[in-house]
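INFO  loader      accepted 1 record
INFO  loader      residues=322
INFO  predictor   begin
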Amino acid sequence: MKHRICAAMALAGALFAAQAAAQEFPRQPVKLVVPFAAGGPADIQARWLGVKLGAALGQPVVIDNRAGAGGVLGAQAVINAPADGHTLLFASVGAVAIAPYLMDKQPYDVARDLAPVIRVATAPMVLVSSSTGRHRDLAALVADAKVHPGKVSYASAGPGTTTQLGSELLKREVGAEMIHIPYKGAAPALTDVMAGTVDVMFADAPVVLPYIKGGKLRALAVGTPTRVEGLPDVPTTAEGGYKNVLASTWYGVLAPAKTPPAVVKRLNSAIATVLASPDAVSFFGSQALIVNGGTPEEFGTFVASESKRWTALAKAAGVRMD
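INFO  predictor   done
INFO  writer      dumping tokens
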């Protein structure tokens, strides 16, 4: 009986401590770590979200760019931070569902080392070619790749990125060989695609949208189940006959693993409110991004399923991050 009373008192004490932590949070400015360089899609979203979230929480949200190793360095910085909700990670699919699992020495395990807070937004990926290129649509690209195996090339922002894996997925689905030309970042890769040096590339909609509208790139297909609002005339990969070729880059917020659940819940609620605002619809919609949201549990399940899908494809294709 005495042990039961002690256990009950310990549980009550833990619950009280968790509630107190949530009520006191945030006690200081919140650091939002972006594991990529300033000026990129993740950074732009994080800075917008930081302003809105800071107003909701009553404390400034400071952006901290920690680029390197496909997002791994920034994720490690958050994993090693105090688990009190004052240091958060604004990650993409690569940093939490792909990169750590493609290294010879796995740096961390997301399910063990990070607590999902909320999925923020999804960037559909668009298969693009030069506006003057010979591939006018997806069917023409596939036909060329089948007739001339190993002659059609695709660019990527680097090994293990969704820009590579989207094309690997297409390759495997259509049963045609294409040559991978990796670059150090999306900008130089797209420069060569626009010049016609490389045939095609799967890239995030917010990145390629200005070039498509400016007539420098031709959109062949979007890797989503339905058409994208910003590109209503561009057919989906499913419409082209390849329903399993689904490629997108998503972004979300995570915290160190032992962050009190009550603090995670508070953060989730605050960010969900921001994402439901008209300002969010306008901001994300202008970049062809899809607003997500949802619970921490839903985000955790989604991260696990995405990791399983992309890493299986990467390993089958022999993709490594080292």
